[in-house]
Amino acid sequence: MTTDFEQEQTHLTTIYQQLTATLAVINDAQSQNHQAGNTIKAQITGEAKLNFDSYADNLDTFAALETINKEIDMLNLKTDSLIARKDETLRLLEQPYFAKITLTFPEEIDNEDFYLGSASYINQDGEPVIFDWRSPIADVYYQQTFGPTSYQANGRQIPVTLNQRRQFQIQADQLIDFFDTQIAIEDPLLLATLKEAKTTQMSAITATIQKEQNAIIRQQTTDHLLIDGIAGSGKTSVIFQRIAYILYRQRKELALNEVLMISPNRLFQDYIAQVLPDLGEQTPVNLTLQQLLAQLLPEELADLPIAAQPVTLAIDQLTLQASDFQSLNSGLPFTIDAATSYQFFLKTPVDAPLDKRIQATQQQLTSYLQEQLITIAKTPTTLTRLESLTETEQQQTFGRLIREDEPLAPLALKMVRYDYQDLSEQLYDYQWLAFEQIIARQSTMDAVIAAQVYSYLTQRVFPKVKQVFIDEVQDYHASTLHLFKQLFPKAQFTIFGDQHQSITPHKIQFSKLPAIFPNLKTQALRTSYRSSGAITALFSQLFPDLTDVHAVQPHGVQPTYLSATNDADYLAQIQTQIDQLPTDQTLAIITPAGQFDERLLKLKDVHHLSTETTTLPESGAFTLPLTLAKGLEFDNVLLYDLTNDYYTEPTVGRNRLYTAISRATHRLTLSALGTLPNALNA
């Protein structure tokens, strides 16, 4: 009698062989596709040579080109499809599936097994043998409700009975182990995953999505969504799993370029770069606030700083005066000066909203420019210059040579428009407005306020963006979140954060978020998956509302304390930890944000990361400020200089301690020159 393990290994072997056969079929199809492409190239250079000798030849040539274009389009579609199928198959060959659910449907006696993987797979016989983790039936696995339960498909609730929930550890065609589980707390695959050493890039894990996380990932709402999760509760993983789920579920309605993610910094961007590809989706546009502002703001505003103190602007109170208009620079006899722009502005209705008056002024200026260009085109000077153009100048201006019998008037206008294209571009970019002057008169020179004003006056918004995801929302001013709403007026926002990880004063309070995001739904995550039980207990004691936080990982190694009364002894103890670090591990030395501590330069074999850093070291010790460490996690962490005023600041000092401690997963050292902050003894 075969054991369960043997049966599962036999099944895995069969599926792996089917996947291998599918890969061979795809490779063969790609080879045939390549040959078809070569055939089309031969047609283009051979049979379908351009022939415009007569009207009939023209028709034949156009027909041949149309046929070839259609063949190319079909070939490109097939190529893209084969690439996508091959990527999925290769991913499944690494791990065909990670789980199995055994279900009984109503009025049926026999059980049915459903294997879940990173993508769906239908074998050569047309049988679905692996189901995508985002498929409706996979919801039963993540709900973890044994016995009678249900899942939703095509708007219908499908009743089933969950009889078995089995998890697998698989490498290619080898079954390493399997577990039959009932509840998350007994999830051995989750615990095994959490024990694994952390890498420099975040991993995409679908096998261990927990019940409360699954509810967020599959949330079907048109309202804005706030995920308020404690440190290490899996918020960032859930972001990408939700993005992948939405792209899967709305694949007919939602394009990749209609999704935007806003990340805290470039290091975080690199850290999460591979997550969505591992989930079977391409990564959407991912920008930091600074990158977004750089794309939006004109050159004269590009270097504005983001104010540390919150700056607010009543946009409806914005006014303009004569000094807010500036002349355009064409370098040619005709231009549009500031007085002309201001006079057109004064002709607009004074009771209209300012942005509407600006749009009306822009339209009037555009019409005025076109009228002037038509007048210039009719002058004898212009016609004389047109007739004297060299062949090179004709090619440059018109893209071709002028025919002898061709009317000159249309060409003269085209030439003048070519001459004044820089002026047209300046007009289109609203350079007749002195934005620097306008913003300086309103408030502190702040990049966020500048973006609000610029977007409002120019109507530069992005209505095609349908989904916006913001991580670390507690790090933004209210004015920044208002800007996001202004720039993406038709988007559904999903925002993730932890109020206790707000480490800079004057940032948004979560109680104020509904005023910015109407109909905001909030879901909480209160389980710590990242840190050991001992580390979780340490950061949980910092706030009264965290007494109910539960740690999934075992208690683990107790945090250690390092203190000294002088610099030399302090640095020597830190150096000892660095020297004892195994060569294949990393040690993150998290420092207070702000000015770099020159004493750190005395440490040997240490990399010093800054806000310009875009990748984490693979091994060894490195320092980084807490502002850069936020959102990341490390196996070994040493908190440097805990007696620094940075950690005792009255409003957010405790938040900084909480955030710093919770970066550690397994081993934590708290160090101080003197005594540790009182908050750690609370």
Low-confidence stretches: none
**How is the quaternary structure best described?**
single chain
CATH architecture of the largest domain: 3-Layer(aba) Sandwich
Question: What's the β-strand tally?
Answer: 21
**CATH class category name of the largest domain:** Alpha Beta
Sheet-strand content, in percent, reads 15-25%
Q: Roughly how many Å apart are the termini?
A: 60 Å
Q: How many domain units? A: 4
Query: Helicity, in percent?
Result: 25-40%
Number of separate helices: 23
State mean pLDDT (0 to 100 scale). 88
Cα Rg: 32 Å
Note the overall shape. globular
In CATH terms, the superfamily of the largest domain is P-loop containing nucleotide triphosphate hydrolases
CATH topology of the largest domain: Rossmann fold
Sheet of most strands: 7 strands, mixed
- State the secondary-structure class: alpha/beta
Organism: Latilactobacillus sakei
Protein name: Helicase IV
EC number: 3.6.4.12
Pfam family, one: UvrD_C_2
